[in-house]
Amino acid sequence: MPEEPILVCQSADLVEGGKGVRFPVVTAGGDTTGFAVRYNNIAHAYLNRCAHIPIELDWAEGEFFESSGLYLMCSTHGAIYAPESGHCVGGPCRGSRL
How deeply is 13 buried, as exposed, middle or buried, from its count of CB atoms within 10 A (0-12, 13-18, 19+)? Predict the structure, then answer.
């Protein structure tokens, strides 16, 4: 039987290229956080964990985009990720993904 969807936030809470919405996630490794952002008018959600070293990406709560608004960026290592796929396109984990 399929699981019921879990409401993370209202769609209007995700502003194009704006702040992301953090939410709790339980994984095999324990409790962590995920985040959702809007890019090209599509909502995307990922674990809030850099592919290089498992540390949260946001430099302030909900701040995931770098200054141009084109990429998600790890505040600690500077790795940049394509928001539409989660693939690392620059930095120490190039080729990995969120």
Answer: middle
CA separation for the pair 81, 29 (Å, rounded): 23
Q: Judge if pTM exceeds 0.85.
A: yes
Which residues make Cβ contacts (< 8 Å) with residue 79, sequence separation at least 6? 50, 51, 52, 73, 88, 90, 91, 92, 93, 94
pLDDT in tens, 20-33: 999 999 888 788 99
Identify residue 71 by its one-letter amino acid code.
Answer: Y
Residue 48 to residue 55: CA distance in whole angstroms: 8
